[in-house]
Amino acid sequence: MKLRDVAHSRTGDKGNTSNISVIAYRPEDFPLIRELVTVERVRTQLAGLNPSQVTRYELPKLGALNFVIAGALGGGVTRSLALDAHGKALSSILLDMDLERS
Question: pTM of the prediction?
Fold first, then answer.
């Protein structure tokens, strides 16, 4: 099962920092997301971007996690030569995460 099967996301960015929220479609899926979508797994999923720091915030009443990912935007949207490697593109990479217990 992919993360996108149980959640959607919203994104934003400021400078060289991306902000990606992962929101469960159904409240009963939030515990699974909270267990499996860890800082370490997000860092691994976005390893190609070489983020300097990943911070997770839990919003259980919304059934959501919010990840603040520093150093992931190649210097920032206005400085990067990447083709739309921001916002929605990063959330698509994150939502492609396999949700399997190891």
Answer: 0.85
